[in-house]
Specification:
The protein is α+β, with helices and mostly antiparallel strands. The protein is built from 2 helices and 12 strands; from the N terminus they run αββββββββββββα. The strands form 2 sheets. It has an 8-stranded antiparallel barrel. A 4-stranded antiparallel sheet has the order 3-2-11-10, with no helix packed on it. The longest helix is centred in the last third of the chain and has 27 residues. The protein is elongated and about 80 Å long.
């Protein structure tokens, strides 16, 4: 019975230690023994290496068919990632982030990513991440999609990265007949959007400042939008 109680005390102490470690994470990314757990506060820009998706819609009137197309996605991606990472040992860390991406001038989307980091010293590291895109502000895409990335972290606040997103567009099919029996049809097929972005990210305190500035700007724009709507 004494050994059982001792075991419970040791287990409770270990749990309390881990809870305390997670309750006091570092703001800057550092490996063990400097930091047990740290925040991820990234803000970055990516340039799309793949071609923007051109959405094609077919118009059919009787036996005649025509189509038009427009650019559904762009070349520039602003992204924000906020989350937490725990160093498993001196070499590896495991964590998660919420991903928020803005295809500038086109659409917003977001999701969650699991992240694995390999440390190469006190500052440099390589990170691989991936997860589902769960939501979007535009009605053109079906969710969930997918987002993945590889980052070379040069130090605690800057990194070079490659981001890949995959989304499928929704399909639309509408047909009717006029009074003369002529058939009209408007058809938009599904298309796969694959985006590969090469870019640069800020983390740590610079990333936190940029994320805060982006949130304030977004709140200001929304306030202007709603105030204009009620005038």
């Amino acid at each position: 019975m004494r050994y059982f109680r001792c075991g419970l005390i040791v287990m409770a102490s270990a749990i309390c230690f881990r809870v305390e470690a997670f309750a006091q994470p570092c703001l800057s990314a550092k490996p063990l023994p400097h930091c047990d757990t740290f925040f991820i506060t990234e803000f970055g820009y990516g340039y799309k290496a793949t071609s923007p998706l051109k959405r094609r819609t077919f118009n059919m009137i009787g036996d005649s068919t025509s189509f038009y197309e427009y650019e559904l996605t762009g070349r520039h991606l602003l992204s924000s990632e906020l989350g937490l990472m725990h160093n498993l040992n001196e070499n590896y860390g495991l964590g998660f982030t919420h991903f928020f991406g803005w295809d500038v001038g086109h659409h917003l989307h977001g999701g969650v990513k699991l992240r694995v980091r390999k440390w190469f010293g006190e500052k440099a590291s390589l990170e691989v991440s991936g997860g589902p895109l769960l939501w979007g502000a535009a009605g053109e895409f079906d969710y969930p999609g997918f987002v993945a990335g590889v980052s070379l972290n040069l130090n605690e606040w800057e990194s070079l990265n490659l981001t890949v997103t995959s989304l499928q567009t929704q399909s639309y099919d509408y047909a009717y007949f006029d009074y003369d029996g002529r058939r009209y049809r408007n058809f938009t097929p599904r298309q796969r959007e694959l985006g590969v972005y090469a870019g640069y990210k800020f983390g740590s305190k610079p990333g936190l400042v940029l994320n805060a500035a982006a949130l304030v700007s977004l709140a200001y724009i929304l306030a202007l939008f709603f105030s204009a709507g009620y005038d």
